[in-house]
Amino acid sequence: MTEKHLAREGATIAFDLHGDPTAPWSARPLLVIGSPMGASGFTDLVELLVARGDRLVVTYDPRGVERSMRSDGAGELTPRDHAADLGALVEEVLAATRSADGEPADGSDGHHAVDVFASSGGAVNALALVQQHPDLVATLVAHEPPLLALLPDREAASAAVEHIVATYAREGAGAGMVRFILLVGHTGELTPAFSAQAFPPPAAFGMPAEDDGSRDDALLAQNLRTCTAFVPDLEALRAVGTRIVPAAGVESTGQLAHRAAEALASELGVAAAPFPGDHGGFMGPQMGAAGPPTAFADRLLEVLAG
Fold it and tell me: Is the pLDDT of residue 102 over 60?
């Protein structure tokens, strides 16, 4: 793995090349992304993908996460902000795969675009990327994007997000995360009763009860509200040349992000691709998780192959 850095206005974006970009790969580069999850969250999956040896795998830390430090201060970031960073990152990767005469290093057309596996908020950002730069992405596997606007219970779901953000602002990360965990794990449509319920203390989830006073959390302060509020341009997405595959975990049926993936698939006129595990099915032992990353990697490569 080679760590690289991309200078952007207001931030420096850290990304990793898992392999030699100039090698004669038989498949397109694969960008593996989340949000606000950084590169480290995909450790199990990426090791399995790299072991196949047929493509360059690229991971990154989104703006404001881990190594990708912001210089523009705090504040919310939108999927379009992240998409602009991703567009510049993809162009950087594609340039690295080309030889001095500007052609792909292996003489094929494979390095004129990348494939993308994007999960959760990363899938939302990737959809924004495809809207902005469809020529840069050949296939996008959008794994459980939390697109509340596509849900029949969008008003109650949006109100639940606002409740989480307000709780975080008032009580800190522990209380906010309790509500977030219960929201993403909720099965079925949401009602106003969700936010009105009595929530357990942070200690019940192994989190500190004390408020440390910080209000710059990458999820709760910077991305949650804007990510879930993103309204995709469905007409534009239907018209692009990018192959978009909404994906949903077989063990997360009925949960918010799973339902949103199915709604996106319906809007695009395709079937949602079932994937092993739940929302974090790609996470395995190295992340202290119980997902099935090997089965997940097999399924991802199967979907990418079409």
Answer: no
